[in-house]
Design goal:
This protein is of the alpha/beta class. Helices cover 37% and strands 26% of the residues.
Length: 235
């Protein structure tokens, strides 16, 4: 579904952050990207969504090359992106936030159907649809951010640090939601600092270090000595 080969990318005027990254996401998979701060994890997602300067390599989604496409074109292809930091429109209601997620869909009947589908999946959002985003808890805001992306009916969902700043209870709920979304046929590429939680729900994991893939594997990657030392403080 998604094939990234020899990707080199950075931010305008700056050095290369990614220095030849190869990543693949197959249909129906959850793929996790983990690694230390500054390794380039978020830059991978932003490069897919055309928010960096891609200086080499290719990013293909099914049969389409993505590196020159605008965000609305990526959404039309079936790719949605939930950036880091629970970016909801704080002064808009829950329903208005969901409607903003459908800006690229011209068929208003389809928009209403997609929002209704989201309300069925997340009853909490229906209950709070008249409340402003600022009045939701951190976990509820993250669910709203993901729901807004799901209104776009994505085939591939990009998640950047969905558990950032959440309580342990809210974090557990978010990872359950991610698994449910995946079971409904959405492929997921997730960047996450909580390595154990990400690896445990992922089909495959890539470990990034200094802009390169240092290691890849399945759930057994948690038993790798290097991973134990970096993430869990033991050899």
């Amino acid at each position: 579904m998604l094939t990234i080969k020899n990707l080199k990318a950075g931010y305008y005027g700056g050095p290369d952050i990614l220095q030849g990254v190869d990543i693949e996401v197959k249909p129906g998979e959850i793929v996790a990207l983990i690694g230390p701060n500054g390794a380039g994890k978020s830059t991978v997602l932003r490069s897919i969504f055309n928010q960096t300067e891609v200086r080499g390599g290719t990013i293909k989604f099914i049969d389409d090359e993505l590196t020159c496409l605008h965000a609305y074109q990526l959404i039309s292809l079936g790719i949605s992106f939930v950036p880091q930091g629970r970016q909801v429109f704080s002064t808009m209601t829950v329903k208005e936030n969901l409607e903003m997620g459908a800006f690229a869909i011209p068929d208003q009947k389809l928009v209403k159907e997609n929002i209704e589908t989201v309300f069925k999946r997340f009853p909490m959002l229906r209950e709070k649809m008249g409340q402003n985003g600022a009045n939701l808890s951190g976990g509820q805001q993250q669910i709203l951010a993901m729901a807004r992306a799901l209104v776009q009916s994505p085939k591939l969902l990009l998640l950047d640090e969905p558990s950032l700043g959440l309580s342990p209870k809210a974090m557990k709920e978010i990872f359950e939601v991610i698994k449910e979304i995946n079971k409904e046929g959405v492929s997921i590429l997730i960047v996450e600092q909580n390595a154990r939680a990400a690896v445990e729900i992922a089909d495959r994991t890539y470990v990034l270090e200094m802009g390169k893939v240092a290691l890849t594997g399945g759930r057994d990657i948690l038993e790798n000595d290097k991973i134990k030392k970096i993430y869990f403080g033991r050899d």
